[in-house]
Amino acid sequence: MELFDVYSLFDLVPEKARGCKVWDNKGNEYLDLYGGHAVISIGHTHPRYVAALKDQLDKIGFYSNSVVNPLQSRLAKRIGEVSGYPEYFLFLDNSGAESNENAVKLASFHTGKDRMIAFRKSFHGRTSGAVALTDNPRIVSPFNANHKVTFCELNDLEAVERELSVGDVSAVIIEGIQGCGGINVPSEGFLKGLRELTERYGACLILDEVQSGYGRTGRFFAHQWDGIRPDIITMGKGIANGFPCGGILISPRFKAVKGMLGTTFGGNYLAMAAANAVIDIIDDEKLVDNALNVGNHLLENIPSSPRIKEVRGRGMMIGIEFNEDVSSLRRTLLFEKHIFTGVAGSNMVRLLAPLCLSIEEADTFINALKDIL
């Protein structure tokens, strides 16, 4: 048997990692400015994180959600404290896509309506409902396309209001900052406008913070730059630093009914050991502040070049849009400069470094990019 060949792979085998550094099986050292799709939040193999998982595995690794797991309650309390949402509820699952599935399901239960509004260039996941909310026809199968989803242009409040006024919209879902669509930051006032419109027309507002949350933008959640409080916030990626975990924060206006949501592996002991370690490390080491400070340093010092069209983003979520295809440039960064980066589309280099990135490590990238340009 062979693997199902759906990934384009670099000819590189990571063997160990620490902080923002990765070493391959030939002993070569790399600077990681991508964190495996924004998953590595506190840095690779943080000693407190590793110890927490090892210690938990020696006790109990798994049991179902039919018993009390105090680690879940502790995580809920800590996320509430650190994020500024202590009055919200937490439901735990396994990934960002599952979080978005649960969010739209919960919104539909709450409103009794079945249509969703999403945005052009959105990405919400690859499961059935989540991929239907994603503006990429190439990855949406005919089966997925049967969901009732209307796409509006980002920053077009008039279009959103036209759709909401029909009266059948359950929720509006939007990323705090669009990730795969090109690091698109909602314009000033747009999220506030969405909050006002959804309240006026009786729809829920869901903030997908799977990529833009957990401190990545210099606030715990990206939407907090705009001073709003959505009905549901979805999480994944950096919540457990690579251990599969996700969750949603749910406004107190929602009523829990036994059996309305469920999961086999969500909130398991190992995931909770990982996630509790992550939230404590983010808080203790002030990684949200570090993400903002080092991110600002990157944004201010990425070199000017006629090859670069625009640089945008916040904190450790940065896109460098080029006037050309970036595949060759990215390979040069990886195989000559030994720096991992990501892409968005064909012409953007995407930086999603661990939140612990240092100024010195940021300068390594800046100097490497200067050399290439």
Notable traits:
about 375 residues; alpha/beta; Aspartate Aminotransferase, domain 1; Aspartate Aminotransferase, domain 2; 2 domains; 4-stranded mixed beta sheet; 11 helices
Write structural notes for this entry.
- Helices cover 33% and strands 18% of the residues.
- Helix 2 (47-57) packs antiparallel against helix 8 (269-284), helix 3 (70-83) runs parallel beside helix 8 (269-284) and helix 6 (157-164) runs parallel beside helix 7.
- The chain folds into two domains: 14-46 and 286-372, Aspartate Aminotransferase, domain 1 (Alpha-Beta Complex); 48-284, Type I PLP-dependent aspartate aminotransferase-like (Major domain) (Aspartate Aminotransferase, domain 2, 3-Layer(aba) Sandwich), CATH 3.40.640.
- A hairpin with a 2-residue loop joins strand 1 and strand 2.
- The N and C termini lie far apart (44 Å).
- It is of the alpha/beta class.
- The chain contains eleven helices and 15 strands.
- The chain has a seven-stranded mixed β-sheet, sandwiched between helices. Strands 1-2-3-13 form a four-stranded mixed β-sheet.
- The model has no long low-confidence stretch (mean pLDDT 97).
N-to-C span = 44 Å
CATH topology category name of the largest domain: Aspartate Aminotransferase, domain 2
Q: Approximately how much helix is present in the residues?
A: 25-40%
Instruction: Tell how many strands the DSSP assignment holds.
Output: 15
Oligomer: single chain
So what's the overall shape? globular
**Gyration radius, to the nearest Å?**
20 Å
